[in-house]
């Protein structure tokens, strides 16, 4: 590990110590998973919470509160026994461009998974191999298999809404929400649940949203403009050089800078208090500006 990587690891460990605590999870959608106590309910809640983790934080919270209210005390039981009566309970649900019909289609698939394999993990493991470099292949098989099951019962068609909820890496997607779900399930610390014991955390891919994409560019992990599968892999490789056995360890803590500290990549006076300030391009511009102002006052 070179000096720059050591410097980055020091900063990331500081962020991890500061933010990676159960009582700081809110407003992250992961908070909804901890509303439940059983493995089955937590797994189903996590999948649905991650699936709708797009858009403004407050809107995500509002939508998930409404969805889980409609599903009752046990998300697992609601899905396991999903029928026409339960479909009517959620058909009017909407989160941005995800409709109640999209959620109903997803729940039909989850019902199939739970009845056939016992858990979402059981279904995922059918496409997972310990010999794989990462979870991209397994995640692609997971999404594509579910879409194929849906297509068989719907005239060979899969709606755009369902495809969005099952964003396969095979289609070039960074699969942010699905990789977020895997992080919640596989990693085990104060924040992540560690419910899945059969997937190696070293194979996880960083769930890249606009915040992580911006902050990882500051750290020099990538220089792309669009968030794609290629971008997610480059960012994961950057973290792996620092923490090869757990490249997604710092995801939650680092994302707090964007979500909690409201960093948008533009300079503000409070930037001087940020752990990443020394890596930002505008740091040098700020220093030059301060020098120029000092000279003007001399």
Summarize the structure.
The chain is an all-alpha fold. Helix content is 54%, strand content 1%.
List keywords for this structure.
single chain, 298 residues, mainly alpha, 2 strands, 54% helix
Describe the protein in words:
Residues 283-298 have low confidence and may be disordered. The chain has helices spanning 3-19, 39-51, 57-71, 75-80, 84-90, 100-117, 120-125, 136-152, 160-165, 176-186, 210-218, 229-240, 251-259, 281-296; strands spanning 94-95, 98-99. It has one domain (3-265). Helix 1 (3-19) packs across helix 13 and helix 2 runs antiparallel to helix 10. It has 14 helices and two strands. It has a two-stranded antiparallel ribbon with strand order 1-2. The chain is mainly α. It starts with a helix and ends with a helix. It is globular and about 60 Å long. Helices cover 54% and strands 1% of the residues.
Can you lay out the helices and strands and say which pair or pack?
Blueprint: H1 3-19, H2 39-51, H3 57-71, H4 75-80, H5 84-90, E1 94-95, E2 98-99, H6 100-117, H7 120-125, H8 136-152, H9 160-165, H10 176-186, H11 210-218, H12 229-240, H13 251-259, H14 281-296
Antiparallel strand pairs: 1-2
Sheet/helix structural class: mainly alpha
The SSE order reads HHHHHEEHHHHHHHHH
- Cα shape: globular
How many structural domains?
1
* Helix content range: 40-55%
Percent of residues in β-strands: under 5%
């Amino acid at each position: 590990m070179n000096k720059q990587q050591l410097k980055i690891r020091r900063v990331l460990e500081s962020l991890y110590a500061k933010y990676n605590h159960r009582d700081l999870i809110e407003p992250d959608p992961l908070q909804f998973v901890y509303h439940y106590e059983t493995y089955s309910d937590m797994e189903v809640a996590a999948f649905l919470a991650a699936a709708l983790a797009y858009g403004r934080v407050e809107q995500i919270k509002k939508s998930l509160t409404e969805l889980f209210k409609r599903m009752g005390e046990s998300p697992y039981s609601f899905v396991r026994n999903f029928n026409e009566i339960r479909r009517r309970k959620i058909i009017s649900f909407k989160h941005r461009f995800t409709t109640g019909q999209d959620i109903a289609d997803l729940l039909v698939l989850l019902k199939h998974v739970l009845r056939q394999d016992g858990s979402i993990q059981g279904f995922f493991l059918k496409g997972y191999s310990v010999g794989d470099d990462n979870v991209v292949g397994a995640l692609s098989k997971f999404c594509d298999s579910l879409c194929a099951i849906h297509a068989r019962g719907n005239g060979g068609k899969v709606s755009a809404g369902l495809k969005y909820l099952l964003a396969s890496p095979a289609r070039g997607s960074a699969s942010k929400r699905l990789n977020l779900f895997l992080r919640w399930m596989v990693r085990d610390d104060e924040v992540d649940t560690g419910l899945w014991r059969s997937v190696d955390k070293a194979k996880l891919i960083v769930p890249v949203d606009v915040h992580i994409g911006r902050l990882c560019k500051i750290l020099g992990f990538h220089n792309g403009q669009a968030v794609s599968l290629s971008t997610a892999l480059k960012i994961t490789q950057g973290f792996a050089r620092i923490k090869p056995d757990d490249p997604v360890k710092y995801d939650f803590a680092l994302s707090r800078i964007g979500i909690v500290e409201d960093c948008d990549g533009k300079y503000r006076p409070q930037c001087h208090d940020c752990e990443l300030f020394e890596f930002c391009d505008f740091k040098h511009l700020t220093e030059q500006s301060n020098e120029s102002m000092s000279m003007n006052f001399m």
